[in-house]
Specification:
The complex is a heterodimer. By secondary structure, chain A is α/β, with parallel strands linked by helices. Chain A has four domains: about 260 residues, von Willebrand factor, type A domain (Rossmann fold, 3-Layer(aba) Sandwich); about 190 residues, Ku70, Chain: A, Domain 2, CATH 2.40.290; about 100 residues, Ku70, Chain: A, domain 4 (Orthogonal Bundle), CATH 1.10.1600; about 150 residues, Alpha Horseshoe (Serine Threonine Protein Phosphatase 5, Tetratricopeptide repeat). Chain A is built from 21 helices and 21 strands. Chain A is extended and about 115 Å long. The N and C termini of chain A lie far apart (about 80 Å). Chain B has four domains: about 240 residues, von Willebrand factor, type A domain (Rossmann fold); about 100 residues, Ku70, Chain: A, Domain 2 (Beta Barrel); about 60 residues, Ku70, Chain: A, domain 4, CATH 1.10.1600.10; about 70 residues, no CATH class. Chain B has 19 helices and 19 strands. In chain B, helix 4 packs antiparallel against helix 5, helix 14 runs antiparallel to helix 16 and helix 17 crosses helix 18.
């Protein structure tokens, strides 16, 4: 049961003078130990671990423990009693300073063990109890009751693990792990894990650590080679002794850091979903497990809180309102489900809804078998790969399952499956393919598309044009590039060359970043965040050779192919200028526009930038003094919706004409009209202008300002036709004739009866 | 085939159109593309004469299915056209319900249009199809009712009234120009029996031709659907329509070979969403730095497999039957003060401390690259790709010349070499500006054609983009290592596999849930008694399987399963163990129940797990509204009468 599977862990840290010494350029053992402690505690918190942790310091001036009496167990202080890891513990770790007092490591172990014992006594669920000792064993101690102490620890199942700068020389051999390589699970400070082939830490060795120690700073953790003092040798011997007796382990700082450097989100316990694998009347009980699924740590779920008082969580209210100008709120009881059928709304009652549902039972049925080549990777659908194994305890069907997997494997076929999770869910189509290892046999299940999910796009043959056919030299250049960037054997592994950048070893940089950011923000709330940038940056070392080798071939490739960035970019930036995002200076060639569909974040960005501009230029009203300039500013800054800006400009134009003394304001009005026309064309809104100019034409007659109309004719400010703007529905001919007609009323939408060929032209004009 | 017709022949399938869309999209944020189609229907008296039997015969000749699309109750060309329009509407509602449609009748006695043109009658203005319109069209094609309705609405059918095709086309183009929505494709389908409508009036004929040309100039497409009756047995394009439609002689030959093909397609019900070939994004593919500039080509990214969305339920106002909208307000729980976005910060609680971020910071954490695109990491042998290396549906990429000229050639070379060497490209891919990068494998895809029909392309050349999991996504699972099966057991399975082997194609199986729902909604909307029938091919065909593999399965049972084995019985030992487990679980259930009730009173149900609460609900027979955590909590609280 998950609830009982926790650990009691006492972190015991030597803070004596001996830990505070280091040659220049190296971190002191104490500093490194504190880093490791922080990582351990952070990891416990991020994984929402139920493990309980205590922090014991020895060598400090303080004494705070239950055993202290008459000068015994002095200078040992429990600064954080056993409990679930929290920020107080973290703060305590940050507060750690080197002490000056005498420190007895055996005392410290006893205090810690006793604390664990007293705190866990009578409580259930502690699967393991551990003392984790950080020391370089440089200070003297008394080893009077060592045998008794060790026996006591064994009696209470308390293990001693130790982490120090080095356990070298005589004790190396007693360390249970070979030098350098420590499997994660052995050292995983959470709990022993099931055999885990995917978590080997080799790649993470060079990953940045929680506290921002990059690759180069890691050098510092390597302890300077310095012979151990006799005192240290004695200390190490004692520690090794207890550790061996209690089945504990010993790690160097480097090993510990390596394992802890990658943030791991909470491990998910595998839970099985049971099905019966069916075909004809063969029924095999099976279990399916999630093998691969995009990991979205629960812990990243953000709450909306009140900025002025972050303690307060903000509530959201999602009310239903009528979709009209009235915006009237509708009560829950007044709402009914429905579907859209074209423009018709079809209300659906609860009973209808049930009746409309496709009925299916829970199932996992084989529909048939097909050659594995028929199921291409590009068809895969869904977000999960399931592992399927036979449910244990049914010997015959277990055998049948194994035989099926082996037969699929032998024949290179897969089975097409109809799967339905429950009678309430929709059935899906998928396939299972065999997977056989020397100690493991299973099927992988992945969902497949229905015909409705396929988009049968066709693309032209690339060889169709001569210019797209690569020459032999070009092909050779590509060939060389591939060879120089072949990652298949690029990594030096334990047993010779190995694959580089294995998915199994690359951690999601976003999750890493998120953890880093949380840790940083938690500790230094006022500091800005900073990030690393690419996947490669984290794993560069394993690919450095590749990068070096490929530089030459890449240059060759670049010479062989003529690649030219087109003018299109420039056009696009103009497009952006209209939308007001241009004030952020972007170099040409950088703005390779991307997204076709509108995505939330993208528009957010535009809005934000638009808001920024708005703060700068708060023009929201077109004045009569410089109407055209105002208009342009508004359009650029988007401080008003386009239609509103146009409306205001139109009002200005009509005002100018109407109030003009003689033709005094005509030029100004005309300039505005020209501007409006250009903008409408640019923004692909021809109708705004077209409607206006049509009305203007009529209006000019009614107010007897025909002289202004003449100006319009002179300037050829006719309706915008489809020639000028693809959005326009106006024929070019109509645009041409629009200016020619002197009497708009006569031609209003009313073609005469036309029988003669001569009139045909006129007819055209009218459209 | 019908699918393809919808997909490609009529929609934005052709390259030119694609380009145009792209052009207009770049500067714009919103891109909804709609098609507009107007049925322009001749209502001369021939349209009401008995339909040619030839048409009926030919309509079922070509395709492999033996059903004819012209049913027996269709007696006249007019009915047939109305039936076609109805089917078209119904198909559109599913395939592309944003598209607009209209119907204009010409040669009617009564006129209805905004110009006072004679004998031109707008039956449907250009708009989205609706249930009412479909029901109306159904009546207009129904054997018993259509004439009455027609006569009432449009007048007599015995005479041919002198109309002008020019004016009819003009009315069409007017509908297009008055459309409030922007239309990507504008089409007019002309239905007529009359191959020379203005035989006696050269002027009208010339006008019509000129008008057709003008329409063509502004991008309105014209298509003709000829109809035959028992007396009109031939339709001669050369008399008039070849000119008007500006058909080359080759086109004409093709049309004349199968004159009713297109109409037949119209009459087919299509229950599938239409997907316009449109790039998901066009992004740079970066090879690396050469000096201080980036070597890059440009690729377009397409989605070729995506779950087809189910029609979404909408919430209607009971009183008006109109759509409602949701308004989200953020407020302070205590004062109910409504908050602005600037009042909101984002926090998460870790080990009792609330850690705060600004919205911008959350975005910044997700943003790795300045711009979306592919970044080359290297190449690997195909064998490095493990069967479980999958996290989500992939893409397809194809070179793009619009941004970087020469992309196609480099892309092609890369493709050829990867195919040669059996390798895939490893890249870091950022799909959008503020999405974290993923590792992807670009799997080379060779162009392939059907062995039997060499013109039928099965696969296009390009790379499939397969998303790779991160270490975080791969879980470690218990080992399963039972004894291996014996050769004769395996052999039996091989025989079964061989017997039940079929050629899987992803486009063969329809989604039963979706098809059922579509049909049900349609039935509700059109007041039908019951939805159209749907045959679910995903259900295993037991009879056929029995036929082919029944004997092997019998053999297998004797080979593996003990006598009397029913498939669901556990072995004795196991059963005993199970009994213990059951007892235990019973006990723990009691404990759980107590725990849950305490938690509910303390208001700390949130901390418990869903399965525990589910068990509790099942035990106590509590009805829940859903399976989400909150649903369960609400249900338990309600059960224990605790106000939440």
């Amino acid at each position: 049961m998950a609830r009982t599977d926790k650990e009691a862990l006492a972190l015991v840290l030597d803070v004596s003078q001996g830990m505070a010494n280091a040659p220049p350029g190296f971190d002191t053992p104490l500093q490194v130990a504190v880093d490791i402690l922080q990582m351990i505690v952070q990891r416990k918190m991020f994984q929402e671990s139920k493990d309980e942790v205590a922090l014991v310091l020895y060598g400090s001036e303080e004494t705070k423990n239950d055993l202290a009496e008459d000068g015994d167990y002095d200078n040992v202080s429990i600064v954080f009693p056993l409990g679930v890891a929290n920020w107080n513990l973290f703060d305590e770790i940050q507060k750690i300073k080197p002490g000056v007092a005498h420190a007895d490591l055996v005392d410290a172990i006893v205090v810690a063990a006793d604390h664990i014992k007293s705190q866990t006594d009578g409580k259930k669920g502690f699967q393991a109890k551990r003392v984790l000792l950080f020391t370089n064993a440089s200070t003297p101690f008394s080893d009077n009751n060592l045998a008794v102490i060790t026996q006591q620890m064994k009696n209470f199942d308390i293990t001693l693990d130790a982490i120090g700068p080095t356990w070298d020389e005589e004790d190396r051999s007693t360390s249970p792990e070979p030098d350098g390589e420590v499997p994660t699970d052995a050292m995983d400070l959470d709990r022993p894990q099931q055999s885990n082939t995917t978590n080997e830490a080799s790649a993470s060795a060079t990953a940045p650590t929680t506290n921002g120690h990059g690759t180069e700073s890691k050098q510092k953790f390597r302890s300077p080679k310095k012979p151990l003092t006799p005192q240290q040798k004695t200390g190490i011997r004692v520690i090794t002794n207890i550790a061996n007796e209690t089945d504990g382990s010993m790690y160097t700082f480097r090993e510990a850091l390596m394992i802890l450097s990658t943030h791991q989100s909470k491990t998910v316990k595998p839970t099985a979903t049971k099905y019966i694998l069916e075909f004809l009347d063969i029924k095999i009980p099976i279990c399916t497990y999630i093998q691969v699924k995009d990991n979205k740590p629960q812990i990243f779920r953000l709450k909306k809180v009140f900025a002025r008082e972050p303690k307060i969580e903000i509530k959201t209210d999602r009310g239903r309102y009528t979709k009209d100008e009235v915006d009237q709120e509708i009560e829950k009881e007044e709402i009914i489900d429905g579907y859209r059928y074209g423009s018709t709304f079809v209300p659906i009652s609860k009973e209808d809804s049930d009746e409309m549902k496709y009925q299916s039972e829970k199932c996992f049925q084989i529909i048939g078998f097909t050659s594995s080549s028929n199921v291409q990777r590009s068809y895969f659908l869904g977000d999960t790969v399931y592992e399927v194994i036979a449910e244990r305890g049914y010997e015959a069907s277990e055998t049948a399952f194994v035989a099926l997997v082996q037969a699929l494997y032998d024949t290179d076929t897969v089975a097409i499956i109809r799967k339905c999770f429950s009678s309430r869910s929709a059935p899906e189509i998928g396939f299972v393919r065999p997977h056989i290892l020397h100690d493991h046999i299973c099927l992988f299940y992945i969902k497949l598309p229905f015909s409705e999910d396929m988009r049968l796009f066709e693309f032209d043959t690339l060889d169709g044009f001569k210019r797209n056919q690569p020459t032999d030299d070009q092909l050779k250049a590509v060939d060389n590039l591939i060879t120089s960037m072949d990652l298949t054997h690029a990594e030096t592994g334990e047993n010779g060359p190995d694959e580089a950048l294995k998915p199994e070893l690359i951690f999601n940089p976003y999750i890493q970043r998120m953890f880093q950011s949380i840790a940083r923000r938690a500790v230094q709330p006022d500091e800005p965040l900073s990030f690393s940038n690419t996947i490669l940056e984290n794993y560069e070392q394993s690919c450095r050779n590749v990068a070096v080798n490929s530089r030459k071939t890449l240059e060759q490739l670049n010479k062989q192919f003529l690649l030219k960035v087109t003018e299109r970019k420039a056009k696009m930036t103009t497009g952006e200028a209209l939308f007001g995002t241009d004030d952020v200076k972007k170099p040409v060639g950088d703005e390779k526009e991307n997204i076709v569909t509108n995505d939330g974040l993208e528009s957010d960005k535009v809005n934000m930038e638009a808001m920024a501009t708005k703060k700068k230029l708060t023009i929201k009203q077109i004045g009569s003094v410089t109407p055209m300039e105002d208009f342009k500013t508004i359009i650029e800054s988007q401080s008003l919706p386009f239609e509103e800006a146009c409306r205001q400009l139109r009002d200005q134009i009509t005002d100018l004409i109407q109030n003009s003394f003689g033709d005094a304001f005509y030029l100004k009005a005309l300039a505005c009209l020209i501007g409006l026309r250009e903008t409408c064309i640019q923004k692909l809104e021809p109708n705004v202008y077209n409607d206006f100019i049509r009305n203007l034409k009529k209006w000019l007659q009614t107010i007897a300002r025909k002289d202004f109309w003449d100006k319009i004719v002179q300037e050829k400010l006719t309706i915008i036709s489809s020639n000028e703007c693809i959005e326009s529905n106006v024929f070019p001919a109509e645009a041409e004739s629009f200016l020619a007609e002197d009497t708009p009323e006569d031609t209003a939408n009313k073609p005469g009866t036309i029988d003669q060929a001569e009139n045909e032209e006129d007819l055209l004009d009218l459209i | 085939m019908s699918l393809q017709f919808f997909d490609q022949a009529w929609s934005a399938g052709d390259g030119v159109d694609d380009d145009q869309q792209d052009e207009t999209q770049q500067g714009r944020q919103i891109m909804t593309s709609r098609d507009g189609t107007i049925f322009l229907v001749d209502c001369g008296k021939e349209m009401f004469e008995p339909i040619s039997l030839n048409m009926k015969k030919e309509s079922d000749g070509d395709d492999d299915d033996d059903q004819t699309n012209i049913t027996d109750d269709i007696k006249t060309p007019f009915q047939l056209v109305m039936k076609a329009a109805q089917t078209f509407y119904q198909s559109k509602i599913i395939s592309n319900d944003k598209d607009l449609m209209g119907i204009i009748l010409y040669g009617t006695e009564k006129s209805k249009n905004s110009f006072d043109f004679k004998h031109i009658n707008i039956l449907h203005e250009l708009s989205q199809p609706s249930a009412e319109r479909i029901i109306e069209l159904e009546t207009l094609s129904s054997e018993d009712k259509y004439l009455d309705l027609y006569k009432k609405e449009f007048g007599s059918v015995n005479l041919t009234y002198s109309y002008s095709l020019n004016e009819a086309l003009w009315t069409c183009s007017n509908l297009f120009s008055n459309s409030p929505q922007r239309l990507t494709v504008k089409r007019i389908f002309i239905f007529t029996c009359n191959d020379q409508p203005h035989a006696t009036n050269l002027i009208l004929e010339r006008q019509a031709k000129q008008r057709a040309k003008d329409l063509n100039d502004v991008g309105i497409q014209l298509e003709l659907f000829p109809l035959l009756t028992k007396t009109i047995i031939k339709f001669d394009y050369r008399k008039f329509f070849q000119d008007m439609l500006m058909l080359a002689d080759e086109d004409l030959e093709l049309l004349e070979k199968k004159p009713f093909n297109k109409l037949d397609e119209l009459l087919k019900r299509v229950l599938a969403k239409e997907h316009k070939k449109r790039a998901y994004c066009t992004v740079p593919f970066k090879f690396g730095m050469i000096g201080d500039s980036q070597m890059e080509m440009s690729v377009s990214v397409y989605n070729i497999v995506r779950p087809c969305p189910k029609p979404t339920k909408i919430k209607l106002d009971k009183k008006t039957n109109l759509e409602t909208k949701i308004v989200t307000k953020h407020y302070l729980p205590e004062t109910a003060e409504i908050l602005m976005p600037s009042d909101i910060q984002y926090g998460l609680d870790i080990a009792g401390r609330r850690i705060l971020f600004e919205q911008d910071e959350i975005k910044a954490i997700k943003k790795f690259d300045d711009e979306p695109g592919f970044r080359l990491l290297g190449f690997k042998q195909m064998s490095c790709l493990k069967p479980f290396h999958y996290v989500k549906p992939g893409h397809f990429i194809y070179p793009d010349e619009k941004y970087v000229e020469g992309s196609s050639c480099l892309f092609n070379a890369l493709l050829k070499k990867c195919l040669d060497k059996q390798m895939f490209v490893l890249c870091q891919f950022t799909a959008r500006r503020n999405t974290p990068p993923r590792m992807v494998a670009l799997i080379p895809q060779k162009e392939e054609f059907d062995a039997k029909v060499p013109t039928d392309k099965i696969a296009s050349n390009g790379f499939h983009v397969a998303y790779l999991p991160y270490a975080d996504d791969i879980r470690s699972l218990p080992k399963f290592d039972p004894p291996r099966a014996t050769q004769d057991q395996i052999q039996k399975f091989r025989q079964i596999i061989k017997a039940l082997k079929f050629k899987y194609r992803p486009d063969k199986l329809e989604n039963p849930t979706l098809q059922t729902l579509w049909r049900s909604i349609e039935a509700m909307a059109l007041n039908k008694d019951k939805p159209d029938e749907f045959v679910d091919l995903t259900i295993p065909n037991i009879e056929r399987m029995e036929d082919k593999a029944g004997q092997f399965v019998e053999d297998l049972k004797t080979l593996i399963f003990p006598v009397g084995y029913a498939g669901s019985k556990k072995l004795a030992a196991k059963r005993k163990a199970d009994g213990d487990a059951a007892n235990e679980s019973k006990k723990s259930k009691m404990e759980d129940a107590a725990e849950i009730e305490t938690a509910a009173r303390n208001g700390s149900l949130q901390k418990l797990t869903v399965p525990i609460m589910k068990d509790y609900c099942r035990d106590k027979k509590i009805r829940t509204t859903g399976t989400r955590k909150q649903d369960l909590i609400d249900a338990i609280n309600a059960h224990l009468s605790i106000a939440s």
